[in-house]
Sequence to fold (1019 residues):
Amino acid sequence: MSTDWSVRERDYGAESSVHSRSGRATLVHPLQSATEAKKAAELEGTVQKLKRKQDADAAAAAAAAAAANADAANAAAAATAAADLDPLSAMLAKANSAGSTPLNDPLSGGIMDPLSAAAAMGGAGSSIGGTGSSASGPTSGLSGRLSLAHDVDMVADDGETFEPWVARRGAILQKYTTSEKLSIVTSFLTVGDKTMLKAQSALTDKVRHRVEQLDDFEGTDQEKLDELSQQDYMNRIEELNQELIKAWDADQRVKSLKIAIQCAKLLADTAVIRFYPSKFVLITDILDTFGRLVYDRIRLKSSYFKPGAVKPVVLPEDFTPSMVPDSAKETCRNWFFKIASIRELIPRLYVETAILKCYSFLTTDEYTHALGRLSKMIRGIGDPLVCVYARAYLCRVGWTVAPNVRGYLAGNLSDFFFAFKQVQSSAVARILQEQNVDLGSYLNLYAPAVEWLLNCIAYRAPEATLEKILKQYNDQCKSAVVLNAILTAFRPTYVSSQATIFTELIRTADCTGFAIHDLYRTLGTNLVLSDPPEKLRLTILNEVWKVVMKLTDPIPYMSCAEVWIEYPVKHFGAAQINAFLGDVIKHVTVDRAFESFYPQLQSIVNKVLSHITDFGMLFSMDKFMPFIDLFQKASIKVDVCKAVMEAFVKRQLVPTADPVILNALVYVGKVLHDAIDALSFDDERRQTSNLICGFLRKVSFGRDLEQQLNFYVEARANFTNLDTVLIHLTQCANTLVMRAQTIVKGRHTKKTAAFARACIAYSFITIPSIVDVVSRLNLYLLAGQVALANQALPQADAFFRAAVTLIPDIPKTTEIDLKQRSTEPILVSFLLEFLSTLLVVPDHPDHGKLYMVKGLINMIQTYQWEENGDGKIRVYMGILSLMASMHQTHYAYRIEGVESNDTLYGGETSFLEEINKVVVAVNEEILTHLASLQDNANAEAHKRQADLALQLFNLVISLSDLSSAKNASLAVNLWNLTKRNNAFDVALMKRSANYLKTLAGEVDEAKRAAYEGVVARLK
Fold:
């Protein structure tokens, strides 16, 4: 093959006019934010509504129009902000505004007590308790109610949720534990072996039979197990549960009933009173099992015939008593008769409550009567603690089986208030003295039962119910335990409207068993969820905080501060927030107490940041940055600084140059930067880099470009170890140069030219600090292009030479999407772009013609390319295209103010000879490579040869003059080489041949015959 070929002269202007296509302007961007479109639709809907309203009422329309104008302004502002975001950014902003926060690990890492372990294994270990730090804190609270949304089984139309018992179970088991020895009395193990009496057919015999069976049980020798640990006791209870199920499966119904009775009897025992709430949970689980077994058994026996059916079917879920056969009803009555025969009140009460749902087989209106009757039966229980938990169980079952029956709930609460005076009785005092339990701990045992009772009453109740209960409380109780239950049960809107009343009730409450700071904490939780009346907000804060600020113990103080910080942040300005933060600092700096409260302090910072949008106000507070300095543990401080930076990046909508903000955030960014070391994960490095870059994007000094550059210099000094940040700063400097060029409209003055060179020098100094070689390579090219666009030719030449000398340092592989991939495609792409830039770069007068191209070729030849790759040849083809473009009298494009080689040499013969030398050398390299592929018997090699030959063919016919016999021969030989091994792309070859035919019709008449001859030879 010949390697000598002449270049076809091109008239780029004429070609552009012939081949250009007409287009039309895009009116709506295809990636317009969905958020903007949605707001436009909402605005249109608002306008239509206002028009309809105007026809009905002119005066109202005027007011509505004013509101519409305000809405339109807000929507326009939001649309403007959304227009600056690409769709993905808009989606991320929407997700971030939803208030999603990371989940905290609920595990403490310590050894769990048996009840806690059981609760965790049972799936009920989620904390629903109050977040107070004292041991006597509430077992449930508003924060728990909100955090367990996935456990809520009832949701009102207005969004009010009801937290089921199962969500509270785990917290009770975790909180109420004991190290004392327990005892349990069982007798069912010996009863099972006795001979059962035969049932009689007569009604009197049946009654006698039931009584005799129960008498036999109650008279059996009972086995008492003493000195049981808490875990042993739990195991014994589980044995009872399994034995009950086993007996039921063996059709030993009476034995199952006896086990349920025996378990219910255990609830009358308060020998270890601290453990009573947990024992209640464990025992009632067994009773629930018994009630479910009885109900399922009766329902199974209630199969009925549908009209026209030949086989019976099981009752549907929404059955009516009329569908239940008489035999099933008789079985149901027998169960209630058996239970009514139990002599002792407590087991009779609990077991009947357990099967309360079975009344649905008998009648539809029995629940109201039964719940009222059982409520009155509870009055006969003498122990106030046992009594209140019996009420809790009745309300729990009643709420499940008859949620619409509410009358008995108020009666139970009234009875509780009436009986509450018994806690001061001598009998209770004697029990507490015997068990060495103080009155406060004893009162705290009431909390789970009272909270459940009040939650049932408060659900979907009107505000008048709260007022009535508060009156009962004030007249009969005044216990802080009960007041906290009221605060947690009712809607925050009700509590906030009665906030001044609650502050007075807290002030006068009897805080035995429940600390006053926990009451203030619960009140604060309500007030941050629902705003109190505006005129009372400051009064409420002053009343509460004058008590809280006097707390000397940092534990209760921080318990309140963590919640109440959100109140001034939402309702007041910088002065109140600053004073609040200062008070916290004063309390926790004593004896370095802040080291024990990092989670609470971090929560305070997060709550401040969640409501702040004016960061100038935030950082102008003289207590905020000292508050940040309280975090002296490195990992915690990094998390806090990360939260500050994230808040700024997300909520600072307009660029700023406020020195107070910049100084604070540079310090915050420096903390994040200094936390990154060689052991840091890539994800952590990436996250920190993105935050700092987000901060840098928010900084703008307007037209004061020199101040902007000074800021970038300072930022580079502070963030030297993060490649992403250095890359961003380099891009910022390049952008700054182009902004200056835009301001002067491409005609630099002496001052702006000096500024442009300063920015270019900034990039030249910054790029070598970047570790990633590929990024350095691309930035050298980009910075060189920027320098070239600003007529800084020496600086551009330095950038390009640095890029060429960096090529040997490029690694063979790099990580892309967590996988190691070859860098050859990246290098090829870079070199092709670099070659397109070299077209407009004038030769250096001291280095000879085409010195940059020749230096690049030398680097390409010495670089270790992949053995089975064609990257080197593709670059050589790019050089051929460059040489063909340089051969033209006028180049296809140019840079204003830069004289390229077409102007410098003006078609000088020596320059064209240098071009031809490069073409010959490069073409020889390409043809040698094609020949080596022909010698390879591999089918893949033949496919590569065909592809490369066709690419070179396209270059030859588009760039060279085919009227030259050598060029024509080269084109034909390449065409034949492409077809040689039948590994070619047929469609692509057809398009190439068609292009050559088109080209033959466009060339001069003198050359047309030669072109047509080449076309004929291809056939």
User: Anything to note?
Assistant: The chain has a mean pLDDT of 83. The first helix runs from residue 12 to 19. The first strand starts at residue 154 and ends at 155.
